[in-house]
Amino acid sequence: MFGFVDETTIEVASGSGGRGAISFRREKYVPKGGPDGGDGGRGGDALFVVRRNLKTLSHLRAQRIFRAANGQPGAKRNRHGRDGEGVVVPVPPGTVIREASTGALIKDLGDDKEEWLFLSGGRGGKGNAHFKTSTHRTPRFAQPGEAGTTVQVRVEIHIIADVGFVGYPNAGKSTLLSVLTNANPKTGDYPFTTRIPNLGVLRVGDTERVLADIPGIIEGASHGAGLGLEFLKHIARTSVLAFLIDLSNDNFLEAFPVLRKELDTYSRELEKKDRLIVGTKTDLPESAERLAELGRAFPEERLVGVSALTRQGIDTLISELLRYGR
């Protein structure tokens, strides 16, 4: 069991075409029949297919080589060789495919139910029946099949969600996610409880929003500190970023600027996203005054105070979250 895997390297290969046949018609009353070598079959294609039921790349860690079948050679009596069976690489929504050596983007598979032809199989070789001419009636040659292609690629998941929860470790992200959705993330009163991204679905009537709880970000995460750098990529597709600020922390006013700086350092695109400040743990002493201070410090930002324990402010937060999404 590999657990959550969001990046791995695999080898993908299309099949080679079958060789053409060298054959001559030989029948009882036709001792010198012409060439009748058939064509080789086409090699199998290699495809990526997005499957919504997949959430990680653990299956690719278990099977690292995906190779399509080769085409079969042609046969006498102009019989065509069988085409090679293709190979399918199943991936979750939000998968990005890059060159293994350079990291260059090959394909962004953002939508579910998408099928993408990555490598075409090699063409089958022509049999000697194709090469008969008026001056060359007995060609004793045929084409070899076209070789398939083998490529090493790095496969990554960029989780697709409407709202990304970002914040310091132990800011209450996992607990709030469990209150708002059907998710059941691990929670605890210690840093870095969340070590993998957690997804949950907020449903209100016929409306849904996918919420993602990203492992805690600390100062320096954009340069590799803590767990944040590894998972910052998962908020790239969100429509809005919800910055969770722990009002029980004496340094609560410093959190929002630090978090914004880390996200901006990682990717300037994250700075352009809609955002919402969520002050957490409003059931604790002094939280009301600290929430007011937060509002005064950042008057241009949308602000909601909530308590996952007492559900204070949860309905207001839900209304805010429903304003965003696809």
Short description:
This protein has 326 residues and is of the alpha/beta class.
What does this protein look like?
The protein has 326 residues and is an alpha/beta fold. Helices cover 17% and strands 24% of the residues. It has helices at residues 58-62, 173-180, 228-232, 252-266, 268-271, 287-297, 314-321, and strands at residues 7-13, 46-50, 65-67, 87-91, 95-99, 105-109, 115-119, 150-157, 163-167, 198-204, 207-213, 240-246, 274-280, 303-305.
Describe how the helices and strands are arranged.
Elements: E1 7-13, E2 46-50, H1 58-62, E3 65-67, E4 87-91, E5 95-99, E6 105-109, E7 115-119, E8 150-157, E9 163-167, H2 173-180, E10 198-204, E11 207-213, H3 228-232, E12 240-246, H4 252-266, H5 268-271, E13 274-280, H6 287-297, E14 303-305, H7 314-321
| CATH first level of the largest domain | Alpha Beta
How many distinct helices?
Answer: 7
Number of domains: 2
CATH T-level topology of the largest domain? Rossmann fold
Beta-strand share of residues: 15-25%
> Whole-number radius of gyration?
29 Å
How far the N terminus sits from the C terminus, by CA atoms, comes to 34 Å
* Strand segment tally: 14
Record keyword descriptors for this entry.
single chain, 326 residues, alpha/beta, Spo0b-associated Gtp-binding Protein, Chain: A, Rossmann fold, 5-stranded mixed β-sheet
